[in-house]
Design brief:
Layout: E1 7-10, E2 16-19, E3 22-24, H1 31-43, E4 49-50, H2 51-58, H3 67-83, H4 89-92, E5 95-96, E6 99-100, E7 109-110, H5 111-127, H6 135-145, H7 156-182, H8 186-199, H9 204-216, H10 220-238, H11 244-254
Helix pairs in contact: 1-3, 5-6, 5-7, 6-7, 7-8, 8-9, 9-10, 10-11
């Protein structure tokens, strides 16, 4: 006998919830507040979220005079929508001590959590000197982390989530470069290395990785140009010089 279909939350890109053949799309959620509430409770699902904290995210400009009632209505509609997927409405978002907490089944899949786990797997494979084993996990992580997060919304919490997602993407791209090189896909590795530098223009390790890929491609001149760009940016923007590791790589190129 087969078990219940897995519950999947997609928080990056279009917000959606999937269970088997049933799909709750972003347009099906109870408006802007419902979308924000779902994502917040999913990301913070390991803890009970105070009602006031959730309300401040949903109504950043000014809380409604009767915000507890308004918040209760949003969560009630959200429960109803999740209930359409066959979930227990009373259990999926319980309310106790003026807090809400998303409590999905134990085997629930959440895209951003899956991306973080995939990055750990890819980095572990590289540490174990098994770069080809990093290929799949790094691709999964990069694919998810590239998706935009809560387009059209802004808050300190959202900014922090976007930064974590950006960090995940950079780590995934680093792993992708190593896995692609091990697989002989130098041109694609070069594309991923450039993307990592664009995301973190002050990170020297990204420039070094890009330079090393260019050398593998046989373009030492471009590798030296990348070094010069790194040196100029560090001097102009941060008032520092490249590290000894970066300088050592540049000297090896010159020789």
């Amino acid at each position: 006998m087969f078990g219940e279909p897995m519950l999947r939350f997609y928080l990056a890109g279009e917000v959606a919830v999937e269970r088997g053949e049933q799909l709750l799309r972003e347009a099906d959620l109870p408006g802007r507040q419902g979308r924000l509430a779902l994502v917040y409770l999913a990301v913070e699902r390991e803890r009970a979220v105070p009602q006031s904290e959730l309300a401040e995210l949903l109504w950043q400009e000014s809380l409604p005079a009767s915000w507890p009632v308004a918040l209760s209505a949003v969560v009630s509609k959200l429960r109803q929508k999740l209930g359409s997927l066959g979930l227990d409405r009373d259990r999926i978002i319980p309310n106790a001590f003026r807090c809400y907490q998303l409590r999905p089944p134990p085997d629930t899949w959440i895209d951003l959590e899956a991306a973080a786990e995939a990055v750990h797997q890819a980095e572990g494979a590289l540490i174990a000197n098994q770069p080809q084993a990093a290929y799949g996990p790094a691709l999964i992580a990069a694919t998810i982390a590239r998706r935009p997060f809560l387009v059209g919304e802004d808050s300190p919490w959202i900014a922090a989530c976007r930064q974590r997602q950006r960090d995940l993407l950079v780590r995934a791209l680093d792993c992708r470069v190593e896995a692609l090189l091990a697989n002989g896909e130098v041109a694609l590795a070069l594309d991923q290395a450039r993307a990592a530098v664009e995301l973190e223009p002050y990170r020297e390790s990204g420039y070094r990785r890009l330079m090393q890929v260019l050398v593998k491609q046989g373009d030492r001149g471009e590798a030296i140009r990348v070094y010069n760009e790194c040196r100029r940016l560090l001097a102009d923007e941060l008032g520092v010089t490249p590290s000894s590791e970066t300088e050592s790589l540049r000297r090896s190129l010159a020789g």
